[in-house]
């Protein structure tokens, strides 16, 4: 038996040298709400995804030697075709077709596919820092 009972995902964090740009992207693309953030010795922006889930955007330390974004496990370039096997976070939407059209209208490069033997469609793309994102269709 697992040691933790009732475990659920609370938040994900993304480190960025420009958290305002990243927050504006997530607010515009997904409609996430910016919520009050605690005051740390570095800048943070918290975005509410659902009542029990958030994204924490954290100011990148100037001493960090890592690249800005992970891109994917298989590619050193921003190529969304690599994301089904690369590092990404997935959200679900009930308005899949109009959501994908909104990405195209904004000029965001995407890769689409369907889950074999299931009625789920997927679109893969990157945020401004190169973090992989997936959006899956959800029945309305």
UniProtKB/TrEMBL annotation:
<dbReference type="InterPro" id="IPR029068">
    <property type="entry name" value="Glyas_Bleomycin-R_OHBP_Dase"/>
</dbReference>
<feature type="domain" description="VOC">
    <location>
        <begin position="8"/>
        <end position="138"/>
    </location>
</feature>
<dbReference type="InterPro" id="IPR037523">
    <property type="entry name" value="VOC_core"/>
</dbReference>
<protein>
    <recommendedName>
        <fullName>VOC domain-containing protein</fullName>
    </recommendedName>
</protein>
<dbReference type="InterPro" id="IPR004360">
    <property type="entry name" value="Glyas_Fos-R_dOase_dom"/>
</dbReference>
<dbReference type="Pfam" id="PF00903">
    <property type="entry name" value="Glyoxalase"/>
</dbReference>
